[in-house]
Write a structure and sequence with these properties.
This protein starts with a helix and ends with a helix. The protein has a two-stranded antiparallel ribbon with strand order 1-2. The chain is built from 19 helices and four strands. It is an all-alpha fold. Helix content is 63%, strand content 1%.
């Protein structure tokens, strides 16, 4: 309804970022509204007593404790949404570190501290609500009677330490596992279906995470818990008189362990719901260009927007959607030639090629130096037998002779953590490296090819959209390009894709150490991107199969395209 009304009253502004900010603000408000039923579900689960059967469910739906817990869970959910809105990422920090998880924690120390501290405070808040509503260990014991000196309850101290551990572990996991990195969906679906598909995963992840933290905390507190308790009691004894009786450890209390598990599952479940809700609301496809009278200029301004990566990602997502599913807007882009800065196809394709070329350069920069191999010049009679449609294609080649590449200068020593590591991150990682280098085990780890990080794609999803959108426009140009603006740029587009594909396969082969691209040993991102580029080239070959000889491609491109024409790439 919002998009339809805006389309009927199209605005004159062609600023994609300005229109996108308004849409994102509306989505955040809706996410806050949608958080209410999720908080209520968590509250019902918290007050549910299975021993009382159906009557327990009926009572939990209208219990005053349920309403009170709903308020607490809603506050925690809103805080999670605010933290995600402040610290989310749409691009990964590409690096070649041997400590990728640690490097993600140190990459943005302020954001990491904000996330961890926020979740620790929320964990304390939920713990206080649980103690207030369901009971728990009280802070003080009076072993000598009501008038004797108090003694700190070890169960109370352990509960607060456990709540702190849950908050620290969850916040650190969000950063190290890159869960603050937004995952944009490839298929457009309603919010109800998207949430329905993620609910089982949220329950499973909450229970698994809470169980894992509880087991690790039990082991750690078993080792150092008594020392921590005695140290806290010693500090308190300097302030006022306390008792010194021996008390039982909370680690061997079944009721205390059940209370910790029940509390942590509900706390993590609240956070998981907020995390999934934020990701679905923010990353769902938009139709921002339809809000403007000049749709093409509006979309182009979004593709060129560099201040906010999210705005640029939404623009590329919108470009992919309209090139894949909207023939009307594809034709509008291909036939929009009356522009002072060039045709709309030229400007849009330039933005897509820039993304692909940047990824190619990134792979080249991270690859180790190789010795150049001399290439023999092509003789006049060495024509490549390229065929399409059953007929030889001699005129696809221009007869250009490749020259022998000059020997490049010796590269500078590669930095173990990449040039992007600075400040505290650089100091900590360099210190760890120096410690490892001095040990035999560390030398084996640092020399291992598999120890390197596979996160070499800073904006993986944006690259996928750029490749597919670019090639989709090229494919549809056969029937939709009335002025032939695409035909003159096909060689440039193919050269960009072939260069990217070559770097992808070479990077995967070098990381494996075998020198040959192998799907079984390459990283998931590399395999996925190789398939995206190959599929795009296969579709191009299929669409232009009968017209390849008329393109007059250079020798190198014709030789690479032959494998796709034979379906053997």
């Amino acid at each position: 309804m919002v998009y339809q009304n805006a389309r009927n009253q199209a605005v004159s502004s062609a600023d994609f970022a300005k229109l996108a900010h308004g849409i994102l603000q509306q989505r955040f408000v809706r996410a806050c509204v949608y958080e209410v039923p999720f908080a209520y579900v968590v509250a019902v689960v918290a007050n549910l007593n299975l021993r009382r059967g159906v009557f327990s469910l009926a009572y939990a739906l209208v219990s005053p404790r349920t309403l009170a817990y709903t308020v607490v869970a809603y506050i925690a959910g809103i805080a999670c949404l605010a933290v995600h809105a402040h610290t989310f990422n749409v691009t990964r920090a590409a690096h070649s570190s041997h400590f990728p998880r640690l490097q993600r924690l140190l990459r943005r120390p302020q954001a990491t501290a904000t996330v961890v501290s926020t979740y620790v405070i929320l964990s304390w808040l939920m713990l206080m609500a649980h103690v207030r509503m369901f009971g728990g260990a009280r802070a003080w014991l009076y072993p000598e009677g009501a008038y004797g000196p108090p003694q700190l309850n070890p169960g109370w101290l352990a509960s607060w330490l456990f709540a702190t551990s849950v908050g620290v572990a969850y916040g650190a996991t969000l950063v190290t596992d890159e869960r603050l990195q937004l995952a944009f969906p490839m298929l457009e679906q309603s919010r109800v279906h998207a949430l329905k598909d993620r609910l089982p995963t949220s329950f499973s992840r909450a229970f698994g995470f809470a169980t894992s933290v509880l087991c690790k905390f039990w082991l750690a507190y078993f080792v150092v818990g008594w020392g921590v308790y005695r140290s806290v009691c010693g500090v308190l004894a300097r302030v006022f008189s306390t008792s010194a009786y021996n008390v039982a450890s909370p680690l061997f209390s079944a009721s205390m362990l059940a209370f910790w598990l029940h509390t942590s599952v509900l706390v993590v479940l609240t956070w998981e719901f907020a995390h999934q809700l934020f990701e679905i609301i923010v990353t769902e496809p938009t139709r921002i260009n339809e809000l403007s009278v000049d749709r093409n200029s509006c979309l182009l301004s979004g593709l060129r927007h560099t201040k906010s990566p999210l705005i640029q990602h939404l623009a590329f997502q919108e470009l992919y959607r309209l090139t894949a599913f909207s023939a009307e807007q594809r034709v509008e882009i291909l036939t929009d030639i009356d522009r002072t800065s060039g045709t709309m196809w030229t400007q849009v394709s330039a933005e897509c090629i820039a993304v692909i070329s940047a990824a190619t350069g990134q792979l080249k920069a991270q690859a180790p130096a190789e010795k150049p191999k001399p290439v023999a010049p092509v003789q006049k009679g060495d024509a490549v037998d390229v065929r399409a449609g059953g007929a030889p294609m001699a005129d696809i080649l221009q007869g250009r002779k490749p020259t022998i590449q000059a020997k490049p200068p010796a590269p500078a020593p590669a930095d173990l953590f990449g040039v992007e590591a600075q400040g505290l991150e650089k100091y900590v990682l360099t210190t760890l490296r120096d410690m490892l280098v001095r040990s035999p085990l560390g030398q084996r780890i640092l020399r291992s090819h598999r120890a390197q990080s596979t996160s070499v794609f800073a904006n993986f999803q944006q690259q996928v959209w750029a490749v597919r959108s670019l090639m989709r426009l090229v494919e549809c140009s056969i029937t939709e390009d009335k002025y032939g603006v695409v035909q003159t740029d096909i060689a440039r587009v193919l050269d960009t894709l072939f260069a990217y594909l070559t770097e992808l396969e070479r990077s995967a082969a070098q990381s494996d150490g075998s020198g040959v691209y192998n799907v079984q040993t390459a990283s998931r991102q590399t395999v996925a991107m190789v398939q995206v580029v190959r599929n795009a080239l296969y579709v191009f070959t299929t669409e232009f199969y009968e017209y390849l000889e008329a393109l007059k491609l250079p020798h190198a491109q014709a030789k690479q395209l032959q494998a796709f024409a034979n379906f053997s790439a």
